């Protein structure tokens, strides 16, 4: 009984412990990544973290092993510390077993277990890794011909995929049908766990109208199906026709029958047949996408024959044919056309007509024909010509042109005849008076006078009447139109005459009772307008002058003279432009004729004596260059001025400045008679170029340069001195003076403090002000106190002298003292000084007595102590740091008492 109770108690405790362990195990104390799909060749992460509160003693990764070589079990893939496999990277900590794994093989697929071990128990969790591989897609097109039928095959391969990809085909965006397409699918498994799927789409080319097909591959590694499109060969249905035309070769006419196929792909098989059994010689021609097969048939031998073209093409379900029948040739008639109007079988012409065209209209289907014509069974008149199928009467029409004309049209064995009668109507001609007109114009140094008598019947007679002794050139032109006649007379005279001249044109005509005349009056030639212009240029280092002399008239003779002699060295060119201008130019070295007069002499028929124009050749002087530097009024800038004056001066002036210099420059030029003045200015602050040289450069046109420099003075203001009796006011922390102490007498008027400026500035600005900033009246270099001085006038004064950026200043401590105070102070100073001198004398005598009783070493020590005494008037403990000038105004009030300290050093 007792043993049964203990057994029941143990059972109850075991169940309770089991329930407690179960409750604890159900707690989420491990966070592990869910099932993972990894891509072959890429990196993946196995994430596992312990989030419980117990302290870990051990943490490991395991994976299930399930292969034929090993029994199912667990393999530890990591140990504490360095990893046992190179496939995995290290974890962050014992609580975080996150691993980075390179998926280089499909063998890494499987279940991975993350295990953590504490002092009390072991907890674990697992995840499954699936390895996939993205396939490489390749597509290839090939073709073959079987039994005259062309087939195409498109191969689409998905190489190295895991799991096996899916391949489908699309044509025009739709899945392929069974006809006319066939699909063959093969799969190859590789040793690395991947596989290759290959799909081949095959079809006859002539049944496929689309020029492209698409391969669609689906796989888990692809976010969407991958579509690859490739172009394939297609056939196009051709347009076929037959055509016949006549050509001439070797004097014979041939039918050229052509079988034409255009726009087809591939080429069309063309054959040609006649309705008779005869071997034909063909000519084939291919131009771009057009095929042509032609035969030549003698036109007269194949009239009425049938010709058939037959076309074979993969796009045709059966052979196509085109046929035509060659026509029989015939003449249907010949008709008469005169000036384009059908006039029947008779034609009436008007006497005197010219250029009459009589055309024959031949109807029929012959390719060409020959025409022969005759008159009254004889030849045609000489002034009637047969050209092609037209008769031309050049005229004028006369009575002998009337008669019976016959024209025969033939083509091989065909013939057609046309007869027509021509009559000539006699016309009475009445005289028509001419229209008379006279015109004058200038041409090539001559006056051309034209007199015309136009539209007259019959033609008018014309002649010229001129004064005796005038030589002329004249001619006459005759023209006819529509039975009327015109005559034009031309008279050529010199353009410039030294006297007035009247020319008459005389016209005779049956319509005039007496001859008509027209007169033209030519005036005396105008005097020429003469102008002379000159210019200069530099060639190398030499100056040349060019002078142009022009006269606005023809017949002007121009010569050149220098002094009283004709220059034979100069090159003279005369240029003329009708009646507009006669010009002569001379070009010479300026130095050859410097200072001389050059004369242009013009001779002209209108001038009684030659006219002269003179130009002076100046003596060349070099330009004068000058530079200066100066202050500018009402401006803080200085200005450097560079002047260049002379003849033929250009504007090529420049300042040579330092690279960092930036200033304002300006260029001005003006003429002073024949000379020219150019000024280049440069504005700058004095501080920029003080003490430097500024150089101005003039560049001559012929390459020579001239330079001139100017020095910018260097100024300074070293100090501002006080000429009144002063004492230095020093800082008690150092020996540097803070100000000059000056004592003025109280209750005195018009007291002055005299100042002196030490420096080399030409002028300066001087002002003095109190410590509160108010200014003190100045008289020249003196600070003036006009009224009686009071206590409020005591204090620190600052006097400042300035010249541009140069500045110097002095601080003056002004104090007042009455006459009684001054006397008492002098007495006290005298007594103090006497007592001090007496004390020094006693100490000196005592030291001298002690010196005799000391050894040489002690003697040197006492002398060193005495020397120290004499060099250090103050104790080192009371020395203060030096007071700057900026603090002088704060310290000067404390420096009103002095003391004499005597420090006697002794070894006794």
UniProtKB/TrEMBL annotation:
Any one of the GO CC terms: adherens junction
Biological process (GO), any one: heterophilic cell-cell adhesion via plasma membrane cell adhesion molecules
Transmembrane segments: 824-849
Ig-like domain location: 26-124, 135-228, 528-616
SMART domains assigned: IG (SM00409)
Protein location: Membrane
Signal peptide: 1-18
Keyword Ubl conjugation: no
This protein's UniProt keywords: Cell adhesion, Disulfide bond, Glycoprotein, Membrane, Receptor, Repeat, Signal, Transmembrane, Transmembrane helix
UniProt-listed Gene3D superfamilies: Immunoglobulins
SUPFAM superfamilies per the UniProt record, alphabetical: Immunoglobulin (SSF48726)
Pfam hit, one: C2-set_2
Membrane topology designation: Single-pass membrane protein
Family, similarity comment: Belongs to the nectin family.
Protein's UniProt name: Poliovirus receptor Nectin-like protein 5
Source organism per UniProt: Channa argus
Top-level taxonomy: Eukaryota, Metazoa, Chordata, Craniata, Vertebrata
